[in-house]
Design brief:
The complex is a heterodimer of chains A (329) and B (224). Chain A has 8 helices and 12 strands. By secondary structure, chain A is of the alpha+beta class. Chain A has one domain: Sulfite Oxidase, Chain A, domain 2. In chain A, the strands form 2 sheets. In chain A, strands 3, 4, 7, 8, 9, 11 and 12 form a 7-stranded mixed β-sheet that branches. Chain A has a 5-stranded mixed β-sheet with strand order 2-1-10-5-6. In chain A, strand 3 and strand 4 form a beta hairpin. The radius of gyration of chain A is 28 Å and the shape is elongated. Chain B is mainly α and 224 residues long. Chain B has one domain. Chain B is 80% helix and 0% strand. Chain B is built from 11 helices and no strands. The longest helix of chain B has 31 residues. The chains are: A alpha+beta (329), B mainly alpha (224). The interface between A and B is large, with 58 and 55 residues.
Chain lengths: 329, 224
């Protein structure tokens, strides 16, 4: 290749050819090296940040709203420090919207919580279908600060806004033959995209024994932190049973049925050896794949010991006298 | 025996830096508290996932060469394997030191009662001797055949790692099963290639000559 003969520099300034070629080769190799590093790094970061089954973590968006501590702590509320609103609303298991903890916050926006009706049927004197806003006028909402222990060995402290499920049950008057209460989440593939997958059987169903359901600790919840429940936390109406693992707290309830026999529950269908009907928090009964002896309180570094019945043993242990605690997982 | 093409001098430095980028991102996000609510669990999961990605990548080198004739993957295999051990070690140390904070009763329960943990730990144990014998000197000391046989442990580690991943997930198996499928495909290529090589050898050699030739047949093929 010949050089164009315009403005030829003085011979002293011309880089000797071998050096020039080496420099070019060096630059080429350096460029390819940087490209390789960038492509490898970007690929690996993309792999670890995405996809179900790989928790990818989240960014904090905006300042967390001020926690609104209640003026009077009811006898059932804990005085432990509530988990931040940001974490409560951005670290969720709600598989209808995705299996990563951040998916529900990202995807639950498409859930329409109004109009919404709740149907009550089965062994009950007053079967009915009621609009959610009507239902919420039946009972005064009260704040309860509860511990929430997930079966995955992490926990939170959440200021819920709700009313005792027992009050609701007394209002609809179940028949004497009703021994259990069964709950059902909305089934709608348009609004809940993961219901198209087969990762669980849909719709999500849960159940409680009648004495568990009418226990004063058991809540139907419509809000948290003094505000309406965010969609990712189970709007417009969810169950909270603080002495049981979190998956018992079924979200976005559309149906409550009174039945005679123990109803099927979603996670015990998925893994009968791993998730039982009772699912009472018990540090002495390990999940087959991990220990339940300790838990990490979200926002804390060190693990803390898990308490039997999640610390609510004084209130609820008598519900299970005579039963083998090993079978109550 | 050695590839005639000049080695790609940019490949290994590029892979080396690139392989450290996800760790840098993880450390950066941990330091800036942007890993989300349960940062320890997320760090733990990402480190384990990176170990798996590198392990499977290192296992893909020979099948890639079989399919395409490319030799550059094989030349970066050692680095990929060492990255796998590196991330597996960080994964294990994070679990023992940061997640469980040296809670020995729980850790003892993990390796005696929980098969999910046992399988992951075994995968790690498989990788240790491979890292230890990853130098050229080790290949010479062991002899290529023995070295090669030892390093087939990498496949065992790969299977154990995928099982560990599969058992970790609560119900959504799509990602772990994708990796199981990739691993299965790599196995298929290797098995098919082994069968093909044996057939070719047999058809080329007269029956009488085969027994004589067996000794020299043990020589390493190029870079395999």
């Amino acid at each position: 290749m010949s050089k164009p003969d315009t403005h030829e520099p003085p011979p002293g300034e011309i880089t000797p050819e071998p050096l020039y070629l080496r420099r070019r080769e060096f630059l080429r190799n350096a460029g390819l090296g940087v490209l390789t590093a960038a492509a490898t790094g970007a690929g690996l970061v993309a792999l670890t940040q995405g996809g179900p089954g790989v928790a990818r973590g989240g960014r904090k968006d905006g300042p967390a709203p001020e926690p609104a501590p209640p003026k009077i702590l009811g006898r059932y509320s804990t005085d432990e420090k509530p988990t931040s609103y940001e974490d409560v609303t951005h670290y969720n298991n709600f598989y209808e919207f995705g299996t990563d903890k951040l998916d529900p916050a990202a995807n639950a926006g498409r859930l329409r919580t109004r109009p919404w009706t709740v149907t009550v049927d089965g062994l009950v004197k007053k079967p009915l279908t009621v609009d959610i806003d009507q239902l919420l006028k039946w009972f005064p909402l009260e704040e309860r600060i509860y511990r929430m222990r997930c079966v995955e060995a992490w926990s939170m402290v959440i200021p819920w806004l709700g009313f005792p499920l027992g009050d609701f049950i007394r209002r609809v008057e179940p028949l004497g033959s009703a021994k259990y209460v069964a709950f059902q989440t909305l089934l709608d593939q348009q609004q809940m995209p993961l219901q198209r997958s087969h990762i669980l059987e849909w719709p999500y169903v849960e159940g409680l024994r009648m004495d568990e359901a009418t226990h004063p600790l058991t809540l139907l919840v419509a809000g948290l932190y003094g505000k309406a429940l965010p969609n990712q936390n189970g709007a417009p109406l969810r169950l909270v049973v603080p002495w049981k693992y979190g998956f018992k707290g079924i979200k976005s309830i559309v149906k409550i049925s009174f039945v005679e026999k123990q109803p099927p529950t979603t996670w015990s269908i998925e893994g009968p050896r791993e998730y039982g009907f009772y699912a009472n928090v018990n540090p002495d009964v390990s999940h087959p794949r991990w220990s339940q002896a300790t838990e990490r309180r979200i926002g804390e570094f060190a693990r803390r010991k898990t308490l039997p019945f999640n610390g609510y043993g004084d209130e609820v242990a008598q519900l299970y006298t005579g039963m083998d605690p090993k079978t109550l997982y | 025996m050695t590839p005639r093409r000049p080695p790609l001098p940019w490949l290994k430095p590029g892979l080396f830096v690139g392989g450290l980028i996800p760790l840098a991102v993880l450390v950066w996000r941990a330091a800036h508290r942007t890993l989300g609510a349960d940062a320890i669990a997320i760090g733990l999961n990402q480190l384990g996932y990176l170990a798996l990605v590198f392990l499977v990548s290192s296992l893909a080198c020979t099948p890639l060469k079989t399919l395409t004739g490319w030799t550059w993957p094989v030349r970066s295999r050692r680095m990929l394997g060492l990255f796998a051990v590196f991330y597996a070690s960080l994964h294990l140390l994070t679990y023992v030191g940061i997640d469980q904070q040296l809670d020995w009763p729980v850790l003892w329960g993990d390796v005696t009662q929980r098969k999910f943990m046992v399988v992951g730990f075994l995968a790690f144990l498989c990788l240790v001797p491979l890292a230890w014998t990853s130098t050229d000197a080790s290949v010479r000391r062991l002899g290529f055949q023995r070295w090669k046989a030892l390093h087939r442990l990498a496949y065992v580690a790969g299977v154990l790692a995928v099982v560990h991943f599969t058992w970790r997930v609560k119900s959504d198996l799509r990602v772990p099963l994708t990796w199981a499928a990739i691993l299965g495909a790599l196995f298929l290529v290797r098995v098919a290639d082994a069968i093909r090589t044996r057939r070719r050898k047999r058809s080329r050699q007269p029956v009488a000559a085969r027994s004589v030739d067996l000794e020299s047949a043990g020589r390493p093929a190029s870079g395999a």
